[in-house]
Design goal:
By secondary structure, the protein is mainly alpha-helical. The chain has four helices and no strands. Among the domains are: 54 residues; 31 residues.
Length: 124
Amino acid sequence: MIDVQEYLDKLRDLIDENRKLTLAVAGGLILILVLLLILLVMSENKKTAARNAAIESKKLVLDQPLLVPDGPAVPNGYVTSRQTEKHWSDEDIEQWFTEPDREEVEKLGDANDRIINEIIGAAP
């Protein structure tokens, strides 16, 4: 079985005996780490600058006025909006309103009941 404590003791003795060498190695490792971080930040800045330059080059520059496309044609005599009356006249009622018969009202009630049952399901 490997004795970890033995290896740690040997490492501690090596560090105590070679204090200057240990400090130099630790300082070198820290310096390398800092340089790597600086390089990483600089490369990210270059990538961001390249992306911004690509976006700048794609910007739309208008050298002619915009042309508005033609919309759908409206037939002559067709009214797209109108003022509506608050109340129907007797003539409008006769022309547009049909009173439903009993069978149609029952069908509508059954359809509504089916929808309600689908929504509620087996809820109590």
